[in-house]
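Why does residue order matter? Because the sequence determines the fold. Keep that principle in mind as you read this record.
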Amino acid sequence: MRKTKNKKRGGKPFSIFERSKIETRWCIDFKSISEIAGELGRNKSSVSREIQGKPRKGRGRYQAHIAHERALKRIQNRGNTSKTSKLPDLKKYIENKMIDEQWSPEQISIRLPIEFRENKLMRIATESIYQEVYRRVKRDGNGFVKTGEVDLRPHLTRRHKVRAKKGFRKARKLERESLLPSIEDRPKAVEKRNRLGDWEDDTIVSKQTLVRLKNMTERKSGVTLFEKTADGSIGSCDQVAIKRLSRLPKSVLHTLTRDRGSENLNWKHIEKELGLKVYFAHAYSSYERGTNENTNGLIRRYFPKKTDFAKVTDDELKRAEYLINTRPRKRHGGLTPLEVLFNETGVAIYS
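Structure:
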């Protein structure tokens, strides 16, 4: 029997995972189009069209999430014409029920066959009504209502101005995580704790306020630094981390291990400002940042759960930090974290 070669599959749109792989291999690993195509099992012409001549570095380079959003939009717009443009009675019915009676698109869809049993044109699916709502607004709900149209968005239950695509946020999260520097690539010396300068950080949340605590802990000595953030945003959390760690010499700034929270995503900025390498623990694996998690427990002794961090003064935080850093540690033979740091580096955090 004659053997046939396995043909590389083609025609199927790239998935978000494939686009993430293209971004990583093209922009970071500097692989060729042929190498990327071979790894994906795709035709190199398909990969070439996907990249569209975008450079590996700098402005305008290939970005997976942008390419995927545009692809989804192209797919969504195929044959995407208004189902009510030639059916004024149906259009009026939808508007009246949503505006005057506050019906949902689903209620309208299931009611039409009952009120118009003989008129088969008075039919529309729930999803088509949602598409009709957002089609009336320019730029997918981000712009102005089109001339002659009624804005139905305020009459939806949740009143969303922009409709999120189903499953897209999950795909973006998976894509994001696939591109983050993994703890698996972290130097083995970090795990052994045989040097100073490997840090872990975390954010302690209070349900009573947006104010949080950003905590950075050095793995070998156990020295911890923490301070309030205005909220849980990337900018606010990174500001505290940079402020506290930048006061230390470069000799004690090698790595920083973080969790995959949204407040930690601007890791490239942290690397640039502090001159260290950032790595991310696996999702739901807090034990991979055990030093930091144990320190959070110490902090909670002074500020237990349900503490409103907005009401905690800076002096109270400084005192708690000092007390934790001057606690004798069994693993250090009774020395404190501050003493370990000073004995090895001559660095004194508190003058």
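Strands lie at 198-204, 212-218, 224-229, 255-258, 277-280.
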